Amino acid sequence: MIEFHLDSRSGVSAYLQLVQQVRRALRLGLLDEGDQLPTVKDVARQLAINPNTVLKAYRDLERDGLVAPRPGVGTFVTRTLTDNTLAAHGPLRTDLQRWLSKARRAGLDDESIEALFMTTFRAASEEDIA
């Protein structure tokens, strides 16, 4: 089961962070078709947020065809976002962990690492388009 967390410094709304976390879990194969999401009540209590925020996230996921509510039972995954490249994740994750260790040894903090990664990622994406 997925365990949600919120980053108040991200500038991203709480409901959107929940949506992104579910989508990420679906893409990485951490959630499978038929898996149950935590109840709205449990998520709201754990994160100390309004239950309507969780409902909004779950409704967005439902609208996208990723989850479906079962009244009185809960919300369940109806499809995943995994693709045929899932097998490549292991080696890539290992390479990324090595890179993160190297960045930390170079003295970069989490915020600097994220900034470096995102700017490099965006630049590479723009090169792919051009």
UniProtKB/TrEMBL annotation:
SMART domains: HTH_GNTR. Keywords: DNA-binding, Transcription, Transcription regulation. One of its GO terms (molecular function) is DNA-binding transcription factor activity. Residues 12-80 form the HTH gntR-type domain. It comes from the Bacteria. InterPro entries: Tscrpt_reg_HTH_GntR, WH-like_DNA-bd_sf, WH_DNA-bd_sf. This is GntR family transcriptional regulator. The lineage of its organism: Bacteria, Bacillati, Actinomycetota, Actinomycetes, Propionibacteriales.
